[in-house]
Amino acid sequence: MRTLCASTLIGEFFIIGFAGLVAMKDQDLSTGTVWTVCGIAMFLCVALCGMITRPGGVALGWALQIALVASGVFVPMMFFMGAVFALLWWTSVHFGRKVDEAKARFAAQQQA
Q1: Cα separation of 53 and 7, whole Å?
Q2: pLDDT digit string, tens, across residues 4-39
Q3: What is the DSSP string of 88-101?
Q4: Are 97 and 1 within 8 A, CB to CB?
Q5: Most exposed of 19, 68, 71, 75 (fewest Cβ within 10 Å)?
Q6: Which residues, in sequence order, are CB contacts of 1 under 8 Å at separation 6+?
């Protein structure tokens, strides 16, 4: 699960950076605010890569997905990109757990 989720989070890292570049064109948003929010979100993406298997890691990932979709208020394309990454997140968590279970079964069979 860790590899799939981390891959999704690294992809989000770049998407958030590009969204920050787009948001800077909005006259109503200050550059400092845009990069503070984007920087925190980008940091969370990288930090979550290491915390994904710890308790609450997946829940924090879901909170990041919700924030990414909500950022569509400022950059409308993020409604779509946020939804795509939320789907990727669900896929990574769902199939990552299945892979982890299969690995555990295989390891148990090898021990026997």
Answers
A1: 14
A2: 999 999 999 999 999 999 999 999 999 999 999 999
A3: HHHHHHHHHHHHHH
A4: yes
A5: 75
A6: 52, 53, 92, 93, 96, 97, 99, 100
